[in-house]
Amino acid sequence: MNKGIIIPCYNEAARLPLNEFANFINNHQDYILCFVNDGSKDDTLTILQNFAQGKSNVLVYDMPKNGGKAEAVRQGTNYMLNNTDVSSVGFLDADLATGFEDYLILEKTLTNNHKKFILGSRKLGGAQDIQRSFLRDLVSNLIGLLIRIIVGLPIKDTQCGAKVFSRATAQYIFKTPFSSKWLFDVEMLIRIKKLYKNQVLNHIQEVAISKWDEVEGSHITLKDSLSFPFKLMEIAYIYNVKPSIEVVLSMGGLLGRRVAS
Questions:
Q1: Distance (Å, rounded) from C-alpha 175 to C-alpha 172?
Q2: Is 49 exposed, middle or buried (0-12, 13-18, 19+ CB in 10 A)?
Q3: Residue ranges making up the domain that contains 235
Q4: What is the CATH number of the domain that holds 170?
Q5: Greatest Cα pair distance in the chain
Q6: pLDDT-derived band at 51, boundaries 50, 70, 90
Q7: Comparing C-alpha atoms, which of 209, 181, 206 is closest to residue 192?
Q8: Which residues does residue 31 pair with via DSSP β-bridges, in sequence order?
């Protein structure tokens, strides 16, 4: 059965690694790539449409108006589910900050371990070549701490741009729009927790990625990152989430150890 990957794209004309996409689909005919043009103002849509010509396992979904990564992934996922027979669907960043080699490991883990949701992680012990600035790493850890308090799950890295879902889980998670353009990963965890309730930890797994590059030209600025705590409080209110400090304490002071190092 085929497997699907969503690639949200916004003004990516100068950054799309088309050769890597072509090599992947040539060597993995059981995968379908769905590029979502999120209202780009450059030549992204034209480049994607030209790339897709003659390729049966490449789809292009156009959103005329920019809706943000969350909505691009959501609409692309629903388009994939409604038009293909994929058994699973996931997403990667257009610049392939996390590459296909790691994605295949996530997909294999989903199948072999009979899971419903696999999260790539830059913060597990097995993660190796992770390139990002010190300031962004510090901000990421602080935000991660707040996320774990809100979500109430022992996930070390919710924001890595590589995730895979079973088909049924994706249908539930992406049915309705998210409230946040960038922190929808947090909303996904809240939704899957509501779906599987006390059994949620049996259905999700965090898997270390071997490489992640902070590619120049990211659409998330440091200013955006500094606004995330306020957005997280809004998400907690919308979903009526009661913060769980116990989850953070049970992780043994992860943030303190990273800052100290």
A1: 5
A2: middle
A3: 3-260
A4: 3.90.550.10
A5: 53
A6: very high
A7: 206
A8: 3
